[in-house]
Amino acid sequence: MIQTINNIRDSMLEMFELVSQMFSLSVRVWSLAITVLLQLLVILVGLLCLCWVLLKFCVYTLPRGDPGQIHVAFFHPYCNAGGGGERVLWCAIRSLQKKYKNIKCYIYTGDTEASPEEILQKAKDRFNVTLPQPVEFIFLRSRSIVEAKYYPFLTLFMQSIGSIMLAGEALSKFRPDIFFDSMGYAFTYPVFRFIGGCVVGCYTHYPTISTDMLNRVSDRLESHNNRRLIANSAFFSFAKMVYYRVFAELYSLVGWSAQVVMVNSSWTHGHISSLWGVNRRIHIVYPPCDTEKFKSLEIIPDVEKKVKSIVSIGQIRPEKDHALQLKALHRLCEIVDPATETQLVIIGGCRNEEDHQRVTALKDLAASLNIEDKVVWKLNAPFDELLECVQQGTIGLHTMWCEHFGICVVECMAGGLIMVAHDSGGPKMDIVVDYEGQQTGYRALDVESYAQAMKTVLESSSETKESMRLAAKSSVDRFSDAEFEMAFLGACESLFSSTNVVLN
């Protein structure tokens, strides 16, 4: 019995000794691993610092513009696209050139298929904007690396990495005093500020990621940026939520690099403020809308229009949701008086072959709904033709969910169209809102509500429509070119005061 107890005791002692040795060995292994990791981290940080110093040296050896001038470069890879963001670009440059005589403006663009003369002519034809001074184009050959079609997965992250590489190409070709991003490529800001030594400003049309996007993924709702495969899977939705949240943190870090931040609406302000945490540097600068040109259009009474036109203005992009417009028109035809002839005029900018493929798909959809004879396509229409369509129209139609602002909405209202816009984003918060107690238009969310709103407009009395038109026209003055110029130049003052060149 005693021998058995002694054997058990010896076994337990041996076991405890073995455990102690294993624990000691584990501590030594972990200690060695941590030491190696720390050493690797120090080496990595050292290499990064060395690369940064080398990059700074290389960048500072690049030729710069003539001394005595302030060189302002706008990062706008798609400056020839013909959308609302491009109008902001041209009006911003025009504002600076009108105020400052000793600045020279540059545009980083990937529109290599067009000549500078063609780009400037399109700005004049499409936006009625002529620059008072010359502008120099710096053509980027690697623009394709920021195009979403090349990244079926992790699209936002890969496009952002691509924008860093594109920024590297831009900086290697010219180092400005002031770098201004007018398209929303936030990951370019650290490149130009901390490597290029530039003063950095930006005009943000919409956040690359927002709480609305997170909510759609969380609620597993299908949309143009949340495919059915992901929306229908709890696992994929969870994985995408993690990916979005990590990306949001990175987006916040790079956004902090901008020294002056301009946003185009209350909706964008709310998202950028919460993401970037730079409240004191954010200015709401409503985009310039050619309100005077549209307001000068003579109103043609609806009784004189045999066909009541529904006018849609906007680039042919997935988020504009032209499919919803076609479905709403189909539903309208089912519920409106058959004696009322209607047509949908889609005035859209097509940037590339991908956009033209979308047009083909939309035409197929219209054919399947038996409304192809009621849809008129005006692709890349010149400004004069756009004005004519607005003047001949009755209703303005906008269907983008969470549109950051909505220049086309303002243009339609200024031109006398009764607006039916999406009940979200800029139209909901800033544009299609009551003005001095008067209704300025309608907002809708889905096919049925859009069709019902358009039916209401078509069946309203002439007096009701006239009252709404007058209220809408009066409300859009706050979005004029003059208002934009004043707000934009005011926000830019701190950018120019940060340079060492004396302003004239």
Report on the structure:
With 504 residues, the protein is an alpha/beta fold. The protein contains 18 helices and 13 strands. It has helices at residues 2-60, 84-99, 116-127, 155-173, 189-195, 211-218, 228-231, 234-255, 266-276, 291-295, 322-335, 353-368, 383-392, 407-414, 425-431, 447-459, 462-475, 481-497, and strands spanning 70-75, 103-109, 135-139, 178-181, 199-204, 260-263, 282-284, 308-313, 342-348, 375-379, 393-397, 418-422, 441-444. A seven-stranded parallel beta sheet has the order 3-2-1-4-5-6-7, sandwiched between helices. Helix 2 packs across helix 18 and helix 11 crosses helix 16. It is globular. The mean pLDDT is 86.
Strand order of the largest sheet: 3-2-1-4-5-6-7
Low-confidence stretches: none
Largest sheet: 7 strands, parallel
Distance between the termini: 105 Å
Beta-strand residue fraction: 5-15%
Question: Summarize this, please?
Answer:
The chain is of the alpha/beta class and 504 residues long. It has helices spanning 2-60, 84-99, 116-127, 155-173, 189-195, 211-218, 228-231, 234-255, 266-276, 291-295, 322-335, 353-368, 383-392, 407-414, 425-431, 447-459, 462-475, 481-497; strands at residues 70-75, 103-109, 135-139, 178-181, 199-204, 260-263, 282-284, 308-313, 342-348, 375-379, 393-397, 418-422, 441-444.
